[in-house]
Design goal:
The chain has about 625 residues and is of the alpha+beta class. Among the domains are: about 300 residues, 4-Layer Sandwich (Deoxyribonuclease I, Chain A); about 100 residues, Sandwich (Immunoglobulin-like). Helix content is about 15%, strand content about 30%. The chain has twelve helices and 26 strands. A six-stranded mixed β-sheet has the order 3-4-2-1-11-10, with helices on one face. Strand 3 and strand 4 form a beta hairpin. It is elongated and about 75 Å long. The two termini are about 40 Å apart.
C-alpha cells in the first residue's frame, strides 16, 4: 500500500507525478493500493462551482496517470480543499467491500471545512482498514488545538455496519496529511544548520508530534518511520529554498504519515476460544519526501507499506464466466454465479470495460444483471445469464474486462480476466466511430457533467477539459442537449439502445411569464427549448391535467437509470424554435407522455415492472 500526502497550496497540478507515485520504479508492480491525501486544493467559490460540475483537476490527473498501470479509483471524498483518493488494482475490486466515506469540519469552530479530516473506510479481504487525511491548525503555539481537533475527528466520524463503527475500531488505520506540527525551542538558524549538515536527528526530539506520541493518550499506538528527509515546510514556491520572506517561517515536518494496528482483543472470544493473535502486520518499506516538486510551499511525502494478513477472504461474491474471445455478436453471452447471502438489487448491472479503465462508471457498455432465460440454483448458488446486444458491443479489436456492479454496495462485486473482442468494423460504423473517438478529446464544446450527489467522476475522456465550468444558472437562453457525436454512445446506465435517443422525451417548458422574468425578449419567445434530450435534473410529467416538475432527488427521478450513475456528455447550445412548435399543445392543456425506462411516470400506461426491461 502506497500512501501520499501533499499540501498543494491552491496550485495547479504539475505535468508529471510518476516519481511521486513511484511509478517509474519496479516497486509499482508490487503495489496493490494507493491512497492520496491532498490539502489546500483550490476551493474558491468559482473553482468549487467548476468542481461541482466537473471532476477536479487533481483527481483527473491521478486517474489519467494511474489507469495505464491498471489502478482503478475505488472511492474519493472531498471537503473544500481536503481531498482523499483511494486506488486499487482492478483484480482486487471484488475483495474491497463495505466502502464508506466521512468528513469532519473543524475550522471556525466546526462550521468551516478548510481544516478537518476526510476518511475512506473499507473491508480489504475481510479486514477493516481506514484511511484518514487531515489538515490541522497551523502555527507553533497551536499544538493543543491540533490535539483537540484530532480528538474531535475521531469522535465525530462514525460508520454504519456491525463492525468498525469508529475510526480506531478498524484493524488498521493510516493517518496522514498536513498535521502542522512544528519544531519547538530551537531557533531557525540552528534548524537550518542541522538540515544543511544532515544531522536531522538533532531535531527529532523537539518535534511536536514526536513529543505528543509519548504524552497524548489519543495518539497511543500510532507509529511512524524515522524522519530521514528534510523538513517539508516552508519553501519559496518554485524553488527548493526555505522561506525567505519577511516572516521567515522555521522549517518543520508538517506533512506526516502514521499508522496504527488495532490491538488484539483480550480475554475469551465466542465459544470459549481465545482470539487469534497478530491478525495482521505492517512494515514500512519507504518514507521520503519529493524535493523535485516545487509548485507549492510544501513538499509531498510518500510511504510504502507491506501489509500481511493472517487470513483473507479470497472468493468473490459474484463469479463471471465468459468466452476467451468474442469474434461474433452471438458470442457475447455472460454467465454469472452469485454467492449465498449476496444482496442483489434490480439495479445491478454488468459493465464492459476497456483494459485501462479509470473507475467503475468508466464502462464502454453494460447490461442489466437480470436474466432473460430465468435463473437456477447450482450448489446453493444463484446462476444467471445475460446477453450483450450487437449494437452495444465495441467494433474492432481490443482487450476488455467484465465487471458486476452491485448497486447495494456501490462497488464491483466480480470481475473477469481480460479477454479479446474482435468484431468486424463496417465502413459506416468505422467512419462514425473514428470521428467520434477523434473529436471526443479535441472538441472543446463537449462538457461532461456529474449527476447530483454522485461521488464518481464522469465517464468518458475528459483530458484537457478540467477547468471549463460555465455558470449554468446565468445561461437563461441556453439548453443542455447531448452532443451529436455522443448520441448512440452514451455511457449512462440507461436500458435504451445505443442509437440516438427518441425525440419525444419529456421536456422542461418555461411559461411565458417566467421567460420574461429572466429577460427573454418577445422575439426570443419563439426560440425556446426543443427538449432536454440527453438528461436533465428535472422531469416534467402529466398529473391530473397539469404539469408537475419532479426534482432529481425524488424517487421518480432516481428511477431513471441515468440518475443511477453519471450523465452523458452534454453540449451547451442556443435555443432553437422547438418550443414554439410545441407551445400550442402545452397551451391546450395536453402534454404527451411516452413510455420511459426503467420506470414510467404515473399515467404513462406502463407498469414499473414493464418499464424496467431494457
Amino acid at each position: 500500500i502506497t500512501v501520499v500526502t501533499w499540501n498543494v497550496g491552491t496550485a495547479m497540478p504539475p505535468n508529471d507525478v510518476t516519481s511521486l507515485l513511484h511509478l517509474n520504479t519496479g516497486e509499482t508492480n508490487d503495489v496493490d493500493m494507493i491512497a492520496i491525501g491532498l490539502q489546500e486544493v483550490n476551493s474558491k467559490i468559482n473553482k468549487r462551482l467548476k468542481d461541482a460540475l466537473f471532476t477536479d483537476q487533481w483527481s483527473e490527473l491521478f486517474m489519467d496517470v494511474l489507469s495505464p498501470f491498471h489502478f482503478i479509483l475505488v472511492s474519493t471524498v472531498r471537503m473544500q480543499g481536503v481531498i482523499l483518493l483511494v486506488f486499487a488494482k482492478y483484480y482486487h475490486l471484488p475483495f474491497l467491500q463495505d466502502i464508506q466515506t466521512d468528513c469532519t469540519r473543524t475550522g471556525l469552530g466546526g462550521y468551516w471545512g478548510n481544516k478537518g479530516g476526510v476518511s475512506v473506510r473499507l473491508s480489504i479481504f475481510g479486514h477493516m482498514v481506514c484511511f484518514l487525511n487531515c489538515h490541522l491548525p497551523a502555527h507553533l503555539e497551536k499544538a493543543e488545538q491540533r490535539k483537540e481537533d484530532f480528538a474531535t475527528i475521531l469522535h465525530m466520524q462514525q460508520f454504519e455496519g456491525p463492525v468498525a463503527n469508529g475510526i480506531l475500531d478498524h484493524d488498521l488505520v493510516f493517518w496522514f496529511g498536513d498535521l502542522n506540527f512544528r519544531i519547538e525551542s530551537l531557533d531557525i538558524c540552528f534548524v537550518k544548520y542541522a538540515i544543511d549538515s544532515n544531522v536531522l536527528s538533532q531535531l527529532w526530539e523537539k518535534d511536536q508530534l514526536n513529543i505528543a506520541k509519548s504524552t497524548w493518550p489519543v495518539l497511543r499506538g500510532f507509529q511512524e518511520g524515522p524522519l530521514n528527509f528534510p523538513p517539508t515546510f516552508k519553501f519559496d514556491v518554485g524553488t527548493n529554498k526555505y522561506d525567505s520572506s519577511a516572516k521567515k517561517r522555521k522549517p518543520a515536518w508538517t506533512d506526516r504519515i502514521l499508522w496504527k494496528i488495532k490491538p488484539p482483543s483480550k480475554g475469551w472470544g465466542a465459544g470459549g476460544h481465545r482470539p487469534s493473535q497478530g491478525v495482521l502486520s505492517v512494515s514500512q518499506l519507504c518514507y521520503c519526501s519529493h524535493m523535485e516538486y516545487t509548485v507549492s510551499d510544501h513538499k509531498p511525502v510518500a510511504a510504502i507499506f507491506a501489509v500481511q494478513f493472517a487470513s483473507k477472504v479470497d472468493k468473490p461474491q459474484v463469479e463471471i464466466y465468459v468466452a476467451d474471445e468474442w469474434s461474433r455478436p452471438e458470442q457475447a453471452v455472460v454467465r454469472y454465479k452469485m454467492a449465498v447471502g449476496f444482496h442483489r438489487s434490480s439495479w445491478d448491472w454488468i459493465g464492459l470495460y476497456r483494459v485501462g479503465f479509470r473507475h467503475p462508471k468508466d464502462y464502454v457498455s453494460y447490461v442489466w444483471a437480470r436474466s432473460d432465460d430465468g435463473e437456477r440454483c447450482l450448489e446453493k448458488q444463484l446462476c444467471a445469464q445475460v446477453i450483450f446486444s450487437e449494437e452495444a458491443l465495441p467494433k474492432g479489436n481490443g482487450e476488455y474486462i467484465l465487471g458486476y456492479y452491485s448497486n447495494t454496495s456501490s462497488s464491483i462485486a466480480g470481475v473477469t480476466e481480460p479477454f479479446q473482442i474482435s468484431l468486424p468494423r463496417s465502413e459506416e460504423g468505422s467512419s462514425s466511430t473514428d470521428s467520434s473517438g477523434s473529436s471526443s478529446e479535441e472538441d472543446d464544446s463537449t462538457l461532461v457533467l456529474l449527476a447530483p450527489k454522485s461521488r464518481s467522476p464522469s465517464p468518458g475522456k475528459m483530458k484537457r477539459h478540467r477547468s471549463r465550468s460555465p455558470s449554468l444558472a446565468k445561461f437563461q437562453g441556453l439548453i443542455l442537449r447531448p452532443s451529436s457525436r455522443d448520441r448512440g454512445t452514451s455511457r449512462s446506465p440507461s436500458p435504451q439502445s445505443r442509437h440516438s435517443l427518441p425525440r419525444n422525451i419529456p421536456t422542461i417548458h418555461l411559461p411565458q411569464e417566467e421567460l420574461r422574468h429572466h429577460g427573454v425578449k418577445g422575439k426570443e419567445l419563439g426560440q425556446a427549448a426543443e427538449s432536454l434530450e440527453g438528461s436533465s435534473f428535472y422531469q416534467t410529467v402529466q398529473e391530473q391535467g397539469g404539469l408537475r416538475r419532479v426534482s432529481a432527488d425524488s424517487p421518480l427521478a432516481r428511477a431513471d437509470p441515468r440518475n443511477l450513475g453519471l450523465l452523458p456528455a452534454l453540449r451547451l447550445e442556443m435555443i432553437d424554435q422547438a418550443l414554439g412548435q410545441r407551445r400550442g399543445s402545452v397551451d391546450q392543456g395536453y402534454y404527451p407522455c411516452w413510455k420511459m425506462s426503467p420506470t414510467s411516470p404515473p399515467g404513462c400506461g406502463t407498469s414499473p415492472k414493464e418499464g424496467r426491461n431494457p
